[in-house]
Amino acid sequence: MPTSLSPPASVMTPVHLGEATHCPYCALQCGMYVSGGSGREAGGTLTVTPRHDIPANGGGLCQKGWTAAELLTSGVRLTTPLARASRTAPLSPVSWEEALDRIAGAVLALQAEHGRDAVAVFGGGGLTNEKAYQLGKFARVALRTSQIDYNGRFCMSSAAAATNRAFGMDRGLPFPITDIAEADVVMMAGGNVAETMPPFLRHLRDTLIVVDPRQTRTAKQAALHLKVTPGTDLALALGLLHIAITEGYADQDYIAARTTGFGAVRESVAAWWPERVERITGVPVASMRQAVQLLGTARKAMILTGRGAEQHSKGVDTVTAFINLALALGLPGRAGSGYGCITGQGNGQGGREHGQKADQLPGYRRIDDPAARAHVAAVWGVDPDELPGPGRSAYELLDALGTGGGPRGLLVFGSNPVVSAPRAAHVTERLAALDLLVVSDFVLSETAAMADVVLPTTQWAEEHGTMTNLEGRVLLRRQALTPPPEVRSDLAILAGLAARLGREEGFSDDPRTVFDELRRASAGGVADYAGITYERIARETGVFWPAPSEDHPGTPRPFLDRFPTPDGRARFVPVDHRPVAEDVDDDYPCYLTTGRVLAHYQSGAQTRRVRALNEAAPEPYVELHADLAERLGVVSGDMVVVTSRRGSARAAARVTRAIRHDTVFMPFHWEGVNRLTNPALDPTSRMPEFKVCAVRVERSDEGPPERDGADPRATTAPRADRGRNT
Q1: Side-chain half-sphere of 126: how many Cα atoms within 13 Å?
Q2: Which of 692, 695, 696 is nearest to 213 (CA)?
Q3: Rounded Cα gap, residues 229 and 244, in angstroms
Q4: pLDDT-derived band at 44, boundaries 50, 70, 90
Q5: pLDDT above 50 for 638
Q6: In terms of DSSP bridges, do strands 119-123 and 409-413 run parallel, antiparallel, or are they unpaired?
């Protein structure tokens, strides 16, 4: 089994490269060819071959990419709509007409009794731009509900809020990913790209500094590892900025010419002297000084943040503190230098630009901006007053389901909150309290298994569509094979439902038609796609937004001349450290942090059904330090129970010295892990505090927990049997 970029032995180079498309997983959106599509009916196999014309991967793929096509022909996917004859009946096949009629009838009944906001929509950061756009439009125009958000709120929202207030724009990397290779020093705070997106490593060519409580695969490649106490990244960033200022590394000419607000930040970090920061973070003063010296003396340097620094109840301020450090060193807006966010989900960037978020309209417009409402309403052919206002954020929406003032129905597209939401057992209870749960998915995920109606949808290699990768480059996925006859695209599903809800006009099942409308809706917005066409993407191998016209070259580096703020300057913003929402104590003496492993992606709904990936990582585990294991009487392979104030999870111990003594780690790709995590929210981004909570760890004499395994066809139990409130 490969661990990163090489193909498995079973992958043969085809004579015909096949259709040029992109990987279905992370935000690198690695280029690949898929061939052999005509062999589906004959039992043939699909072949994946990497493309060399996409800079993000440049001919490399990780093991997820190499095996990406297996699900398309494996027989574990959904191929017909499913519905329940009653609340306690199992899911059974139904026709598309019956499924859509049932959904529309239930939606109309719920809204007639409880109001427009009685029905909500929950989207995903893996949906194409076309799907994300049409989903937002469907919610506001067909349902006329304010209750829409998406799982990207759990991923990039803190970095998005921080970059918007510092730079006036949220684009994960405001420079091509190839610029990273030009940097002499890269600091990566809370990112583990060696496991989450291995082809990214080709761009890390010089000195690497990693901030992480664990010695991850990425940290093992670093020249300097700052093993921070979970939840103290903000204090560390403040201490690094203190050192940069007091020891003369601040670029005063850059600060004067290109920024505002430095004086207030300089005063605010005066109290964060290195020795104080060491006591809070556990990072030695000498290591902090070495990190600043490396960054401050580099010819070109970059600071990148990932989910480890962002998924906190103070994630926006943490990212802001790292941006302040980057600004003080004069990095943003210089070629080969800067600040960037390592976007996670496949379309995490585009998914948050075009209307899935509770407070946004297409083009990254605010839904409470009268001018934005007027522009988008004109494109949609509705009165601006018909558009609802802002709704609940993702966790707040899930928390409100089935309550007196919350939605009674939920339509889920491209998400699996039973596994991925914080305080997951509570979220499952809220889903169970609904009068209507509809899930559109490729496989029968844990969330789909609870649904009243399940709709089988096409996937990445079976449809056209655009994705926007972590560098803001809009890419084109091309259809490589024909989907099964009873499977429909999300665009067709939304169009069919809209027609049944009285909106026959304005909802197309053709991706190009939808994208052309998206271009008009985004025109003049921050994320302006007006000048991007399918033909241009194919010709130029992707186009960087903003691209306001077809003769505009696109904007690979938007900050070189000025920042998109009213005065053209970047903003320093004073922030201060505060403790984690839930600190350790005598009853819960360890920190829990969660993350990804190489073989799996997100909730694992797809990767856990790929044989080779499931064999590589078949079960969750608890990584704990050897000293903690000794105190517990545990060796690797023993079962342990991890308990937080919200629930417990059981898994095998993995004993190591690559993690802090006071910290345990669990990967979140399996149901149960997020039963432990804390839903405390950042006040600005509404990001939950996934990355740290207080737990206790105990040895267990029981065997491994039973799991449903990789075959979803058996998980069609009655709703009551799966915890529904009947």
Answers
A1: 22
A2: 692
A3: 21
A4: low
A5: yes
A6: parallel
3-state SS record for 111-174: HHHHCHHHEEEEECCCCCHHHHHHHHHHHHHHHCCCCEEEHHHHCCHHHHHHHHHHHCCCCCCC
**SS3 annotation, 51-75:** CCCCCCCCCCCCHHHHCCCHHHHCC
Contact 213, 663 (CB under 8 A): yes
Residue that has been written with the tokens 């300097």 in this structure: 224
The helix-helix angle for 96-114 and 490-500 (nearest 10°) equals 50
Which residues make beta-bridge pairs with 590?
Answer: 695
Give the pLDDT score at 726.
27
Angle among Cα 508, 510, 514 to the nearest 5 degrees reads 65
Are 415 and 124 in contact by the 8 Å Cβ rule? The answer is: yes
Burial zone of 405 (CB within 10 Å; 0-12 exposed, 13-18 middle, 19+ buried): exposed
Q: What are the Cα distances from residue 184, in Å, to 91, 129, 180, 223?
A: 56, 34, 9, 12
Question: Most distant CA pair in the chain: distance in Å?
Answer: 71
Q: Is the pLDDT of residue 39 over 70?
A: no
Distance CA 564, CA 332 (A): 13
User: CA torsion, points 133, 79, 76, 448, in degrees to nearest 10?
Assistant: 60
* Placement of tokens 């093991």 in the chain: 63
pLDDT at residue 37 in the model = 58
Who's near 269: CB < 8 A, 6+ residues apart? 238, 241, 242, 245
**Measured in whole angstroms, how far is the alpha carbon of residue 615 from the centre of its chain?**
25
Q: Quick check: 653 and 660 in contact, CB under 8 A?
A: no
Instruction: Say whether pLDDT at 4 is over 70.
Output: no
Closest CA to 602 of 416, 343, 349: 416
Neighbours of 457 (CB within 10 A): 25
In 3-state terms, what secondary structure has residue 303? strand
Q: Which has more confidence, 419 or 724?
A: 419
Q: Position of tokens 């505009």?
A: 552
Q: What are phi and psi of 540, to 5 degrees?
A: -105, 5
**pLDDT, mean of residues 53-60:** 93
- Beta strand pairing call for 693-699 and 590-595: antiparallel
Indicate the DSSP class of residue 90.
P
Cis status of the peptide bond prior to 546, with omega within 30 of 0 = yes
Query: Parallel, antiparallel, or unpaired: how do β-strands 301-305 and 338-341 relate?
Result: parallel
Instruction: Return all residues near 449 (Cβ < 8 A) that are at least 6 apart.
Output: 91, 712, 715, 716, 717, 722
Q: At what angle do helices 490-500 and 129-137 cross, to 10 degrees?
A: 10
